[in-house]
């Protein structure tokens, strides 16, 4: 159990808190005091009955503003973050004391020396890293950061030495040790190459100030280089094709083609020949046609709005996924497939499967890796940065100086519900800039259809009671928020309800980690 106590700056307030713990005979594992006006307490074990009495007593202390539980002590959080950073760094990293003894090392060091970290810690770094006198460097008058060529596991490395100092009085600093980071020649070459590479159209283009979008891009980066199909859900205009293209460009297939077929815009017969091609003589055509499956060999094929694909074409696509080959229309010879599939949809495929309008087997074949693109109204922190980015892009095309957004325009953009999502925002700004005479875009320059929130959720001719419709809205809201607030405590805090109330609602609507993609 850990408590976070918000309090005023009063002499003796911490002692008053500790006196209560002594009275209750509560064992205190740790205490941390934040200069910003917070006291953190860590109890190894505390009975629920003691906890119930403890909280009100602490709240009654003069100068205490709030008391609540917290998951981590500040020191624990910082230690865990540093440990995670150190553990995942690909380069060997040592932390040493002022005498050169190793205090900490990461997995790259253990793997290189083929020894567990427990055997490495406590030894002199000069036993592992040769060619540099660490003790002499730290004993210097005022050692600064230094780089030197060294030997590690009989190979050449570049060592970056970063001194660690602690204050001793107002001006003096004491040498406490150093962090040593080793980079191999291969790693230096990779970094040099990356530095000189031209920027690519990948995930760097995404604006991700909102939690929803940060999560999506983080997930996309992790699955981009896997070869399994990706299914991308999202409303029209949310950027499904853009993130599909970014996944392709960040994959090992980036040198191959990225081709797309819009399943909603083509008749079934045309879509079939576009996808599979046809043999010479088919449809009375003298020459064969190469389909997208062959054109995208070694690359990625995007099937846009897969939910609109006919059942006949769904069956043929399923066979491609199962057998790894297909036949051109009018041809009996099989053709091997070497394509990574990415599919998008703005519809609920799971619901379509239940209704028998989409093949269950195909759904499970495609839904191996999935992403959910948030609507623009669910990523409001991104609206203004997106708007400013579009203004720069459009201004360049129009050959004019980028205009600024007035405060009234910013407020309007953030409040508008954006049924057309990012594409609607982009088009609205292009129109405004095309007709703009001044240097500032006002609310009046943005021409958008009226969207009253009061009529967007429930049709005026709905069937059912008010309670049923409220429950539908409540369930939809909780499903939307759950991926970003996946614990009942986080969700309760977001919605201003009690932990128990949220837990009951999630249970009632069947919302949990198994039913909602995080």
Structure characterization notes:
- By secondary structure, this protein is α/β, with parallel strands linked by helices.
- It contains 20 helices and 21 strands.
- Helix content is 39%, strand content 20%.
- The protein folds into five domains: 2-76, Alpha-Beta Plaits; 89-189, Beta-Lactamase (2-Layer Sandwich), CATH 3.30.450; 211-372, Rossmann fold, CATH 3.40.50; 377-441, Helicase, Ruva Protein, domain 3 (Orthogonal Bundle), CATH 1.10.8.60; 466-509, Homeodomain-like (Arc Repressor Mutant, subunit A), CATH 1.10.10.
- The radius of gyration is 30 Å and the shape is globular.
- β2 (30-34) and β3 (38-42) form a beta hairpin.
Given as residue ranges, the uncertain stretches (5+ residues, pLDDT < 50) are 452-460
Number of strands: 21
Could you tell me the CATH topology label of the largest domain.
Rossmann fold
Radius of gyration: 30 Å
Provide the structure class.
alpha/beta
For the biggest sheet, the summary is:
6 strands, antiparallel
Strand content: 15-25%
Please give the domain count.
5
Q: Please tell me the CATH architecture of the largest domain by its name.
A: 3-Layer(aba) Sandwich
Gap from first CA to last CA: 27 Å
Helix content: 25-40%
Total of DSSP H or I helical runs spanning 4+ residues: 20
Oligomeric description of these chains = single chain
């Amino acid at each position: 159990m850990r408590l976070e106590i918000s309090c005023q700056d009063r002499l003796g307030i911490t002692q008053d808190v500790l006196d209560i713990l002594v009275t209750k005979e509560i064992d205190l594992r740790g205490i941390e005091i934040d200069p910003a006006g917070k006291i953190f307490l860590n109890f190894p074990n505390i009975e629920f009955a003691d906890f119930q009495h403890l909280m009100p007593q602490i709240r009654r202390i003069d100068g205490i503003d709030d008391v609540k539980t917290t998951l981590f002590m500040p020191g624990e959080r910082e230690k865990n973050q540093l440990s995670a950073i150190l553990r995942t760094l690909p380069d060997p990293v040592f932390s040493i004391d002022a005498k050169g003894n190793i205090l900490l090392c990461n997995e790259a060091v253990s793997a290189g020396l083929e020894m567990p970290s427990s055997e490495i810690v406590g030894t002199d770094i000069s036993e592992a890293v040769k060619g540099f006198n660490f003790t002499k460097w730290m004993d210097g008058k005022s050692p600064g950061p230094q780089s030197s060529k060294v030997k590690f596991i009989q190979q050449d490395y570049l060592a970056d030495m970063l001194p660690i100092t602690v204050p001793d009085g107002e001006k003096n600093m004491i040498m406490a040790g150093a962090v040593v980071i080793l980079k191999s020649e291969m790693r230096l070459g990779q970094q040099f190459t990356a530095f000189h590479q031209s920027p690519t159209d990948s995930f760097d283009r995404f604006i991700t100030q909102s939690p929803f979008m940060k999560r999506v891009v983080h997930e996309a980066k992790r699955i981009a280089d896997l070869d399994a199909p990706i299914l991308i859900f999202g409303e029209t205009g949310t950027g499904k094709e853009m993130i599909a293209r970014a996944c392709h460009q960040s994959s090992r297939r980036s040198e191959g083609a990225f081709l797309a077929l819009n399943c909603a815009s083509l008749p079934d017969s045309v879509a079939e020949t576009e996808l599979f091609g046809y043999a010479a003589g088919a449809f009375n055509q003298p020459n064969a046609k190469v389909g997208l499956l062959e054109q995208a060999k070694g690359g990625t094929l995007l099937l846009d709005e897969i939910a609109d694909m006919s059942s006949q074409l769904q069956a043929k696509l399923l066979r491609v996924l199962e057998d790894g080959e297909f036949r051109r229309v009018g041809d009996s010879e099989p053709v091997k497939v070497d394509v990574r599939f990415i599919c998008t949809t703005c519809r609920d495929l799971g619901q379509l499967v239940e209704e028998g309008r989409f093949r269950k087997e195909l759904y499970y074949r495609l839904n191996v890796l999935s992403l959910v693109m948030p609507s623009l109204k669910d990523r409001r922190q991104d609206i203004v940065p997106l708007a400013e980015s579009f203004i720069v892009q459009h201004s360049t095309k129009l050959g004019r100086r980028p205009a600024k957004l007035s405060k009234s325009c910013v407020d309007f953009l953030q409040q508008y519900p954006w049924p057309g999502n990012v594409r609607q925002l982009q088009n609205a700004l292009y129109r405004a800039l095309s007709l703009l005479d001044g240097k500032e875009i006002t609310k009046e320059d943005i021409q958008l259809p009226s969207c009253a929130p009061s009529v967007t959720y429930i049709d005026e001719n709905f069937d059912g009671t008010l309670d049923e419709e409220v429950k539908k809205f409540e369930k939809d809201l909780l499903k939307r928020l759950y991926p970003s607030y996946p614990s009942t405590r986080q969700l309760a805090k977001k919605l201003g309800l009690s932990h128990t109330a949220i837990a009951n609602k999630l249970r009632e609507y069947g919302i949990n980690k198994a039913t909602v993609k995080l």
